[in-house]
Amino acid sequence: RIKTFIVYIITKSGIALLYNEETNNTYDVCLKLTKEVLTIQKLDVVCTRGSESHVNHRTVVLRRQAAGGLGLSIKGGAEHSVPVVISKIFKDQVGKKVNGINVEHCTHEEVVHLLRTAGDEVTITVRYLREVPSFLKLPLGSPGPSTDHSSRVSSPLFDSGVHLNGNGNNTAPSPPSPSANEPKYEKRWLDAVCLPLLMARVSRYKTGTDKLRSNCFEVFALDGASTNILQFCTAAESTDWLQAISTNINDLTQENIKIINKYCSSDDQIVHMGWACESPEASVAGRISAFKFLALRGPYFYIFRTPPISAADWGQAETTYNLYEVLFKVHKLWMAEDCWLQARLYLGLEHSPEQQDNESLCFSILVGHGQSHTFRVELATDLAIWEKSFQRAVFLEVQRIRSKSYMCSSQGNVLCFTIDFELGFTCSEGTSKTILWRYKFSQLKGSSDDGKTRVKLLFKNAESNQIEMKELEFANLTAVLHCIHSFIAAKVASMDPLFMCSQTFPGNHMNS
């Protein structure tokens, strides 16, 4: 029988901290990045020899003292896959039951709570160990960000004896010589989370806000699973990992685009798609930032809540716009490469966690009637890709439709205004189609509008060199102005040899 093995080549590995906001705990983790998967490994204690199910059980009764409590300390817990051990006073005993309750699979906090509330007389069933387990001598992980004393003493990484122990300075004497049949424990890196990177996303921001985290980010898989918060010692190290993960996500996206385009018509090709965080409009109260999946495909710009997986999903977009009637706008001055951003991070100029950064690495999609969508990306390279992809998608769509007509009016007459890639601007009567005037794109010298329905277009007469004004009224003036911009931008781009050479779809050559 032929067996198939999938081998994942590690492209990057290293140590980070994993912070869980719900538990407020931080642990050392090992990150392993491959082309398709990000794996998070946690340091754990495993039994490598012997069995943990030996008998050697005994039952003892303890009476709680007014001063000193039960006189014992415990260590370990189910959250680290190790038994709860009495680490001080009563040497070499493992607690199995407390007042008849089995605690073998209880967490550290649960056992501490049980001992504190067990009453004045506590019955404990213990198992004798001849060899001191390794986790009594070695830390299980990082103690976490908190320096609060109460959280330290209740952590499974430390002895919990302050509220239980009569003398915190008591230490167990050296254990008897180990037996070959006794369990042996070792610390090992074990896979805890494996996140597929196809359609995954990353975020440096606090959930639902525009506030940057310091040297931190999260990775979210397509199914919603996440890494929790990955923390790094320096901003440079955080940026390095963010770029590496983002690169693998983008590479997988491009491969997916090639597969889809291979089976689609030339008018339905995907130019680019990926995640971006939409910032709420200032006029909409109560809304928070939310991640959206954006796509430039064929004639449309799509906004999805979740990525489209099947062909039917493409019909389930939250919003769809005609490409030639929207305008792409980058916010603020930015560099095309992340070297500028990385240089700032190395120099220690990174943003503080509480700093508002509403304008950083953002772009807007301006649509008709003054509406707009503002999106934020994580890296300057992402912003560059979206800008170039949008220019390319609009160019291809203008090349496909070649002309677009809008009904308008002037001095009470119904007219037809046409924008044509070859001929420029043409205005004709609405019914007879008689041409009233025509100008090339190069003859348009200026324009002004009232922000509602009326626009004045200023053209230079080719023969007299005089400026001629044409005033028109449209039902959706913004869409018309954006369409004019798209056609002129496409006309200019068609004269750029470098731009024209780059006009091929991923996995499908464009016929020009």
UniProtKB/TrEMBL annotation:
<dbReference type="GO" id="GO:0005856">
    <property type="term" value="C:cytoskeleton"/>
</dbReference>
<dbReference type="InterPro" id="IPR015482">
    <property type="entry name" value="Syntrophin"/>
</dbReference>
<dbReference type="GO" id="GO:0005198">
    <property type="term" value="F:structural molecule activity"/>
</dbReference>
<keyword id="KW-0206">Cytoskeleton</keyword>
<feature type="domain" description="PDZ">
    <location>
        <begin position="59"/>
        <end position="130"/>
    </location>
</feature>
<dbReference type="InterPro" id="IPR001478">
    <property type="entry name" value="PDZ"/>
</dbReference>
<dbReference type="InterPro" id="IPR036034">
    <property type="entry name" value="PDZ_sf"/>
</dbReference>
<protein>
    <submittedName>
        <fullName>Syntrophin, gamma 2</fullName>
    </submittedName>
</protein>
<feature type="region of interest" description="Disordered">
    <location>
        <begin position="140"/>
        <end position="183"/>
    </location>
</feature>
<dbReference type="GO" id="GO:0016010">
    <property type="term" value="C:dystrophin-associated glycoprotein complex"/>
</dbReference>
<dbReference type="InterPro" id="IPR011993">
    <property type="entry name" value="PH-like_dom_sf"/>
</dbReference>
<feature type="compositionally biased region" description="Polar residues">
    <location>
        <begin position="144"/>
        <end position="154"/>
    </location>
</feature>
<comment type="similarity">
    <text>Belongs to the syntrophin family.</text>
</comment>
<dbReference type="InterPro" id="IPR055108">
    <property type="entry name" value="Syntrophin_4th"/>
</dbReference>
<keyword id="KW-0963">Cytoplasm</keyword>
<dbReference type="Pfam" id="PF23012">
    <property type="entry name" value="Syntrophin_4th"/>
</dbReference>
